[in-house]
Specification:
The complex is a heterodimer. By secondary structure, chain A is an alpha+beta fold. Helices cover about 60% and strands about 10% of the residues of chain A. A four-stranded mixed β-sheet of chain A has the order 2-1-3-4, with helices on one face. In chain A, helix 1 links the parallel strand 1 and strand 2. In chain A, helix 1 runs parallel beside helix 3. In chain B, strands 2-1-3-4 form a four-stranded mixed β-sheet, with helices on one face. Chain B is globular, with a radius of gyration of 18 Å. The N and C termini of chain B lie far apart (about 50 Å). Chains A and B meet through strand 4, helix 3 and helix 4 of A and strand 4, helix 3 and helix 4 of B.
Chain lengths: ~220, ~220
């Protein structure tokens, strides 16, 4: 059966496994989803990703791949329908650049804003806002990074809108400002309204509860 | 000649990766040495986000971030491919390139550490080398298989740079016979004519890295 040949090991609140779900859904790929208990990792996960021992792991015809952006590129190469990356090499370079920027610069600042306190948190909030503003410039005034429809960067970074909003709510400091980052704000909203995107999201109230509980541990 | 410019700074291994890729593909380019303590207007204009090297400028259009540049080069100049054709093998190559990037802070910690911190960093760095040797290289001659690929370029710093770092720090990470396959790879990598001609000079690197380590230690204690 077609579904047997593609398996995704994920975790319900992880934005990294969410990205892969989105890509698979966008391309209409049937797959088997396996929910991992990260406090008690399965032998299967440890066998499929011995180097990092993390999710997501995509297993295609028994061959495992780890690291979400690498998985996205693989999916895009194997299943050509609804392409994620543009055709032009320079545009592809720009897409890879912004996906990397979001992961390398926006996410760590977001995580630090969530987990730190006092001055460290203030610095992290400032950095997160600055980097989100820079990310906005990558949109180049377009509705989505992919243009009129979503593409690689949207799938790679669109989750940040939801998580940044939740973080802002939990720490009591706004991270995404509709005033100072109007285009980014609209982008996040438009992205999260897309049916296939919305359908794959974990239930918002459960997600918020989970993040609130996680926050108490810091 | 296609208008191609590389903004770099000696002895950045990131810049060397791009140089190696261009040389291996026989692509001509103009090299521009940047003074990172006094960044040029060009650099700031071409890479306003990170203000770093390397930056590849092709027909006036800049590409920044080493991994992004290398993928771009691979796509524009497909001769002597540096990535496998098969999507799964290609993804594995990207995995190891990312692994190198993710773990470079650990090697940096080895380079700038002192005392207990450094002992810890040394231990971790050796563990990483074991993973790289066992899982990344395995029994292959090169990370790319029979010939040099992007993963070899990603680990290229294990050649000329590591020896200098080890000498400056006074600790050997790759002791004789402890990583036989990596050692063999190192030899093969440095013997490739394109790589051999494009390695930074050891005698020039020594004082540079010595001074860098001193600065890093000083700034850590202030």
């Amino acid at each position: 059966m077609a579904e047997d040949s593609v398996k995704l090991l994920g975790y319900w609140v992880s934005p990294y496994s969410l990205k892969v779900k989105w890509a698979l859904k966008l391309k209409g790929i049937q797959y088997q989803y396996v929910e991992e208990d990260l406090k008690n990792k399965s032998p299967m996960l440890l066998q499929y990703n011995p180097v990092y021992k993390k999710i997501p792991v995509l297993v295609h015809d028994d061959k495992p791949l780890a690291e979400s952006l690498i998985i996205l590129e693989y999916i895009d190469e194997v299943w050509k329908q609804n392409p994620l990356l543009p055709i032009d090499p320079y545009e592809r370079a720009k897409a890879r650049f912004w996906a990397k920027f979001a992961d390398d610069k926006c996410v760590p600042a977001l995580v630090a804003a969530f987990s730190k306190k006092g001055e460290e948190q203030e610095r992290a909030v400032k950095e997160a806002r600055e980097n989100l503003k820079i990310l906005e410039s990558g949109l180049e005034g377009k509705r989505f990074f992919g243009g009129e429809t979503i593409g690689f960067v949207d799938i790679a970074a669109g989750w940040i809108g939801c998580w940044a909003q939740m973080t802002g709510e939990i720490i009591g400091i706004k991270l995404i400002d509709a005033e100072t980052m109007p285009l980014l704000d609209s982008w996040f909203q438009d992205f999260l309204e897309i049916p296939l995107i919305k359908e794959c999201m974990p239930p918002q109230d459960e997600l918020l509860e989970h993040c609130k509980e996680l926050h108490t541990k810091f | 000649m296609e208008e191609l410019k590389l903004l770099g700074a000696w002895p950045s291994v990131y810049c060397y990766r791009v140089i190696w890729a261009l040389k291996l593909k026989g692509v001509k380019y103009e090299y521009v040495e940047e003074d990172l303590s006094n960044k040029s207007d060009h650099l700031l204009q071409y890479n306003p986000v990170h203000k770093k090297v390397p930056v590849l400028v092709h027909h006036g259009k800049p590409v920044a971030e080493t991994s992004v540049i290398l993928e771009y080069i691979e796509e524009i100049w497909p001769q002597n491919p540096l990535l496998p054709n098969d999507p799964f093998e290609k993804a594995l190559a990207r995995f190891w390139t990312k692994f190198e990037e993710d773990k470079s802070p650990a090697f940096f910690a080895f380079f700038r550490g002192v005392g207990e911190e450094q002992e810890k960093a040394t231990k971790e760095a050796k563990q990483l080398l074991k993973i790289i040797e066992d899982h990344g290289l395995g029994e292959k001659k090169f990370f790319g298989g029979n010939k040099i690929g992007l993963v070899d370029l990603a680990f290229g710093w294990l050649s000329a740079w590591l020896e200098v770092m080890e000498e400056v720090v006074g600790i050997k990470l790759m002791e004789a016979n402890s990583f036989p396959r990596l050692e063999a790879w190192n030899k093969s990598f440095k013997e490739d004519p394109m790589i051999k001609e494009n390695l930074p000079d050891r005698d020039e690197m020594l004082p540079y890295f010595k001074s860098l380590r001193e600065k890093l230690i000083a700034s850590a204690t202030t």
